[in-house]
Amino acid sequence: MTDPEHSPRPVREVIRPTTIIEAVRLARRLGVALTIASETFQHTGSFKFRAGYNIVIQVPQRHLITASSGNFGQALACACQRLGKLPPLSAPGIDGCIGRPGITSEG
To answer: Among residues 81, 105, 100, which one has the least CA distance to residue 90?
Structure first.
């Protein structure tokens, strides 16, 4: 039986909407039409959460391994936590990597 708290939901129901910013003053200064699509309000602060969550809901195994210790590794950790899976094992040599705090805080 699946735990309802950790039941997979479609990606579109889990992600946050992309923030669209019409940068009028910057556009005027640059002399171009400019619209900014910001994913900084997405879970983990990056668009990588979309792909990470999508992978986690499609992979039947409880434990994943990733070669990423950056935004993607953090996204996988967050998705695993939300879905009741074990946190991902990450790339060798991660101890000196800047991404380690984000990965461990998410999973």
So the answer is: 100
pTM of this prediction exceeds 0.90: no
Give pLDDT tens digits for 4-25.
566 788 888 888 999 999 999 9
Q: Give the count of domains, the chain.
A: 1
Q: Tell me which residue range forms the domain holding 8.
A: 4-106
Q: What is the CATH number of the domain that holds 13?
A: 3.40.50
d(CA 3, CA 84): 9
Residue 98 has pLDDT above 80, yes or no: no
CA–CA separation, 52 vs 76, rounded Å?
5
